[in-house]
Amino acid sequence: MRSAAVGYGSPRDQLLLRTHVNPPAGQAFDQLSATLETRGPVVLPALLLCDFGHLAHEVERLESAGAAGLHLDVMDGRFVPQLTYGLVVVEAVRRAAKGPLEVHLMVEQPESCIEAYAKAGADILTVHLEGLTDPRQTLEAISSLGPRAHLAISPGTHVERVVPYLDACDGVLVMSVEPGFGGQRFNPVALEKLVRLSALREDMGGSFRLAVDGGISTETIGPVAAAGAELIVAGSAVIRSLDYAQAIAQLEQLARGAA
Q1: Higher pLDDT, 60 or 31
Q2: Catalytic site residues?
Q3: In the chain, what's the furthest Cα-to-Cα distance?
């Protein structure tokens, strides 16, 4: 098993990719959308803290525990300070997982690697507005490759900056902590952004999904769901729990009760 800190899109990683990874990208998103429509907000466990020495087993445990999808944080050590994992790990998760995968690209020049991550099996590709030269072009490129195109905004980014691109988005991920830094407290500015985006969606008759990532716990999941979040990324609240199924069920119950 390779270390979690592997290149996010190196030529070596791309050569190691095999062409028979579960295609087509985005196929499992319809399943996730159906869950959102019938049950309400869902928790997407983030794999960053899982046991990478037993990756396939961790994926199996999370899906058996009721995870509607999985969230993978790809960090390049440049756009954000942390270096995590890349294409080889995403491919390995795709082979082990039955449900949808969201790949959150916290990398410089994400335009250069979206095709590789689509081929690796991402169902949702999330890119940061702050790192894009031409957000619309990148979102359209992601959509043309198959995955759903989501746009992420950091806590310091004004929500109005995303408005020109909402018609090209399948979803908006509101960061409630600064990307790339661990151990941060939930930033309530995310609630204001979710409320604003929810209102904009209603006004424009849009269908983009609202997501939130960072500092999610039993204390914060109710407020984010009440503000409009549907896809709720949770890391330590699930992975550091003794019982994945109980943690996911409790968080989703709190979210659905507040939505």
Answers
A1: 60
A2: 73, 213
A3: 49
